[in-house]
Amino acid sequence: MKTAVQIASDVQRGASSADEQLSLSLEAVRARNEELHVFLYVDEDGAREAAARVDDVIAKGDNAGPLAGVPIAIKDNVCQRGVPTTCGSKILQGWRPPYSATVIDRLLAAGAVPVGKTNLDEFAMGSSTENSAFGPTRNPLCPSRVPGGSSGGSAAAVAADMTPLAIGSDTGGSIRQPAALCGIVGMKPTYGLVSRYGLIAFSSSLDQIGPFAKTVTDAATLLEVLAGHDPMDSTSLPEPSPSLVAHLNDGVAGKRIGVVTELIEGADDEIVNEVRRALQAFRDAGATVVELSIPELRLGLSAYYLIAPAEASSNLARYDGVRYGLRVDAADVTAMNEATRTAGFGDEVKRRIMLGTYALSAGYYDAYYGQALKVRTQMIDAFARAYREVDFLVGATTPTVAFAIGEKASNPMAMYLSDVFTIPTNLAGEAAITVPFGTGEADLPIGVQLLGPGRSEAQLLSAARVLELADGRP
């Protein structure tokens, strides 16, 4: 499949049409979706209408936008008017939102063609897409292994060439981790850079929408479309979308880059070796590399699994069998509410709701949730100190390559450790990107993670482009 930038160029100049590109995408979906279980819902009728609108705009001689005719996959926790949106949960099965998320409106305005909704860990709670109520997604590069999570369906859609682009959400690594395991580019933007209006909340102070793509250029192009202030989101940064594509070839000459001990310790040797090779690529490109230790990062996993479940227990209280979604009838309201939530939520969601409710309960709030917030502040301060010494940081994205389906499903702690290198960025609300760089066990891809301060997307994307070229990808 061509890159998104190439497709948009072809469609805009008439060398192809949006409808033709959509047909190619749908053909790829039909070829492997049964095997991989990437899409929960394919919106062929809606996609045909969107493609027809793009072709009509071009027929009139107008510019259809930077993503003209580009098929895109949408994680199924992002609302799209009239399109089933489940969050991978039985409690929302069959629900069709009466409105669209801001990012959907921006994609359509840019000429993109949403193909359908992709599978995910239920309510984005997981690291393998095995927690979906509708069955797991498989890694297109090795179907016996996981694609990562929670945005595993979106990552797999791009890796399987079903769509050149996808969007996901990243609460503790849910874009970067599956991107790394599927061998593609994934970016978690600065908190507030992309509107969360219409994103079904897991943990409101951590969630952020971001891009998946095969190339750094495509990721930058998509993020420019998604980003920018939205008055519908009270946490949206009050500034326009940043210029990203124009800075892709800025390079890293003269930059100081920190390799963080805590972001590689515990990773497989083959992954540490690729991180070291990436550092050499930066040196060859004119950067200075320094070793850094940020001990506070070791506390990230513990803080995250108090803050995120606490916010989830509050956000998921709305699924009560009264307002929308699943309803299991019972003798009275209390029994109905309990029966609905028991039937509608899966084990991992129940586990996190209980963790969060406990952390917020009287007598335990200060000892658990309050303490986790203090740790979060320490981590933010530690990152700030690091960025006074270096321009950005480098580490591993994941401790291992893609693991086998079922390997960690019965061990929640082992599964949680899959996100140990990605969680700190979410707690700090800053930016990070993973770029494929080399391979490991069974020739599976390895992701190198670049982390920067808030609003450093342009710098991180240009650095990722350096690694992309060094790894032999045009």
Count every beta strand, where a strand is a DSSP E run of 2 or more residues.
11
Strand content: 5-15%
Radius of gyration: 21 Å
Distance between the termini: 15 Å
Fourth CATH level, the homologous superfamily of the domain at 4-241:
Amidase signature (AS) domain
Number of helices: 15
Element pattern in H and E: HHEHEHEHEHEEHEHEHHHHEHHEEH
**Helix coverage percent of residues?**
25-40%
CATH class of the domain at 4-241: Alpha Beta
* Poorly predicted spans: none
Give the strand order of the largest sheet, numbering strands 1, 2, ... along the chain. 1-3-2-4-6-5-10-11-9-7-8
Short overview:
With 474 residues, this protein is of the alpha/beta class.
Which tags fit this structure?
single chain, 474 residues, alpha/beta, Amidase signature (AS) enzymes, eleven-stranded mixed beta sheet, 15 helices
Mind explaining what this structure looks like?
By secondary structure, the protein is an alpha/beta fold. The chain has a domain at 4-241: Amidase signature (AS) enzymes, CATH 3.90.1300. It has 15 helices and eleven strands. It has an eleven-stranded mixed sheet, sandwiched between helices. Helix 2 packs antiparallel against helix 3. The longest helix is centred in the C-terminal third of the chain and has 24 residues, at 366-389. The radius of gyration is 21 Å and the shape is globular. The chain starts with a helix and ends with a helix. The model has no long low-confidence stretch (mean pLDDT 97).
